[in-house]
Amino acid sequence: MLKRILTSMLLFTLLATVVPSIDKASASGTTYYVKINSGTLNMRNNPSTSGKVVSTLSKNEVVTVSSQLNGWAKVSAKGKAGYVSSKYLAPKTAAKAPVSKPANYKATAISAAKSNLGVKYKWGGNNPNGFDCSGLVTYSFAKAGVTLPRTAGEMYNVGTKVTSYQPGDLLFYATSGGKKVTHVAIYIGNGQMIHSATSNGVSIANLNNSYWKPRFIGAKRL
């Protein structure tokens, strides 16, 4: 009996020494994305709400997690490192664009957008009664069988960044200055894009337009 007890104690000691805690073992070196409904997520210099904020992270922003412990994750993003609450992180795969897309979906999306030329601009609109910029894009691609995030900022987190455009690529702009994406359009070829603008509703504009060109942020291919 004594021998059995000693053996059990030895096994318990070995397991406690070798097996890391779930927090420490999970997500080490893994790419995650920021899962928040609105606003930004604070990255702090230590794992505490009293820690100094060293950076802020946007919804769906990608981070690399090096360790997790007691509800906090040590992350790196945008060249900085710090700590964020683990409950606001989710696997990167959940933020990816749809993998399966119908054939000719880009041409179909462009056709759907063009069929709404002249429709008035409407904040929050996502149907032919009125569109905002992202509403037109989500509506058009939905007609082509592709589901996209609802806002321009969220769309900027999917797809592949490109510098040479093809019809169906998404073009992103910062209409409020800085680098924050606030507008999205669909490239239709020949240096033109279709979008829903506050001034002209659903319309076609030139990429070299004096208003849009200096506000351009980047392009993504789905």
Proportion in helices: 10-25%
Helix-strand makeup class: alpha+beta
Regions with pLDDT < 50 over 5+ consecutive residues?
A: 5-28, 94-99
CATH class of the largest domain: Alpha Beta
Within the largest sheet, what's the order of strands? 10-15-11-12-13-14
Total tally of structural domains: 2
- Total count of strands: 15
* Mean pLDDT metric: 84
Tell me the overall shape.
elongated
Following the backbone from N to C, one meets helices and strands in this order, namely HHEEEEEEEHEEHHEEEEEE
Determine Rg (CA atoms, Å). 24 Å
CATH superfamily (homologous) name of the largest domain: endopeptidase domain like (from Nostoc punctiforme)
CATH-level-2 architecture of the largest domain: Alpha-Beta Complex
Largest sheet: 6 strands, antiparallel
Span between N and C termini?
67 Å
Number of helices: 5
Q: What's the CATH topology label of the largest domain?
A: endopeptidase fold (from Nostoc punctiforme)
